[in-house]
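Recall the central idea of this unit: under ordinary conditions, the amino acid sequence of a chain determines the structure it adopts. In this exercise we apply that idea directly, starting from the sequence alone.
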Amino acid sequence: MANKNLAARVLFLLFFLSKEATTFAQKSNADSLSRLLAVEKKDTNRVRLMWQMAGAVNMYDPDTAVILSQQALYLSQEIKYIEGQSKSLGALANAFVKMGNYPRAMELYIQKLKLEEKRNSPRNLTSVLMNLGVVHAFQEEYYKALEYYSLADSVIRLHHVEDMKYFILLNMGDVYNRLNRSDSAYLYFMKSLEEAQKLNDIDLIGTSQTGLGHSYLKLENYPQSLISYQNAITNLKRANDDEILCEAMLGLANLYKLINNKDSSAHYATGSLAIAKKGGFLLPQLEAAEFLTSLYKQQQNVDSAFLYVNSVQELNDSINSKSRIREAQILTSNEQLRQLEIEENKKIAAKERSKQLQLLFIGIFIPGFFLFTLLLSRIKIHIRIIRVLGILSLLILFEYLTLLLHPYVVELTHHTPFYEILIFVSIAAILIPAHHRVEHWLIEKLISNQAEKQDPSLKLKTVKLKMKEPPG
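Accordingly, the structure predicted from this sequence is:
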């Protein structure tokens, strides 16, 4: 029996690192965040509130979570807030996982991974690597999932990311159990149980014990499997964790079936089905109904078997209907994202046009400023003013060239500060001597013009003197 509920809980715990909250609590949290967002002015805080709100609404309204996450991503990109970009990408990916759009979630997690690989945040890097592994597991790409889990595990060990140890151990145990490598699954589930006991968290303890029950069952160690399932059920009831409780009870039902205790098997399977119905968990309901159908067929209890066959059919219809709703959600969210992208592109285009106009104005202003300085040389003006204007024109020209060339220099040097500085120093080394020559020429011209105004005959004398100069 595949532990699908355990995998779902692994994913949930990984995303939020907390116990499951009720929809009412999540809505209340989302409302509080919405009120804070309405009055918040600082952009970094707005980004933080948006991705937190996206996480809160994701449980019951993934469409809204998608919009909030995308808006947070655009704003964080605009203000160059890297932590905001990372968190927004994670929240957006989580929303797509909720919809079942795993390929899109994978793309977003990879974008997040690229950001985190350039940063020094081991916990964030661990989280995104684990999320990539979980999504691969959901797509039944178990060996690929193990690759990402192994990478995450190496980061945890190297940087001592203590609060993620439990989750990586549980994830590894889950994948090995799915691959029917029960010895490895047992080892990881046992290690996860030890971590959960250190944390003194009965929910995590019950989850690990459920995994151990699965492992012992496949290893045909039925007494230990029985103990693990019974302990898990006790702890999960205390933690009010109905979803994993369904799985533990169905696991125990399967164990009793294997040891030919049909009454106990039917009892726990019926209990699992009842809890799943109460919680609205469709897949656990389907698993329990399919199990009871098979059990009653073996007992040749035709009426009961027929009853559960009908339940299986109804549940399959409900799940298919839910899948169609998810497909519609995916289409809707894709269109919403397309509209948001169009709006964002318009904003970017408007900013780019404004930037180009400013550069054009500066480009026109610089030669205009130089011509203005030349015109000043025709009137009586102090040389110091010419020098000050010359220095200003040089600074403006240098800054203009820096603005103009910076994107190309960054691309050429691949963001290497040493080469960027070297290039701009070289530009300055060319501009400064050129500036001195122009300034010298301008001052000489100014002195000459002012002298001519005082005695026009000086111009003629200068010409005559030049004519008398010997050739060569």
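DSSP finds 19 helices and no strands in the chain.
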